[in-house]
Amino acid sequence: MPIPPLSAVHDALPPAVHDVLLILAPALALAANVPYIIAMLRGRIRPNRATWLIYLIVGVCGCASSYAAGVRDALGVALTYIIGPVVISLLAVSRGEGGWSRLDRSCLGLAALSLALWALTGDPVLAVVLTSIADLCGSIPTVLKAWHDPKSEDRLSWLMFASANLLNLLLIPYWSIGTALYPFALSVPAVTLALLTTVPRRAK
Which residues contact 141 (CB under 8 A, 6 or more apart)? Predict the structure, then answer.
């Protein structure tokens, strides 16, 4: 069922603003990869290998299932979560850190399960739910890393990712599990990491 109050936000957007967001949100999400890659090449940050590979694999599943569930305008940002992780995952082989924990394997298995259940049931909404869970789980290693060492992640990149994802939520014409869950799931870790890398914590 759509969520009327949230759907009303999209309906209230002037057409010109909607058209700008349609370009701005994915452009900002794609551009966010640039400072991240530069920071990697300079050796300032070392991304978690598992997180970015999971982002790539889950991104393919999430885009496919979201499209099948009816997502259109908000799909642009999700597509950038395939393009960026391709490059970052390749660079992370030599410039990243972390291995394959039980959590990492579980997230990849969940993504594979979402595709299998989608194929068996023909229900893209179920695939969206499982893929969203896998994406959130895949972010945990990086969130924990940033919690312990905020400087181990690039602040500018995560501020850009967070901004792009929040703008992208405005492009959802009606909020339902199939249309809004995956874009919302992309927003949660981006905003979390933006806060962890930006807001100073009090020393205990």
Answer: 48, 50, 51, 98, 101, 103, 104
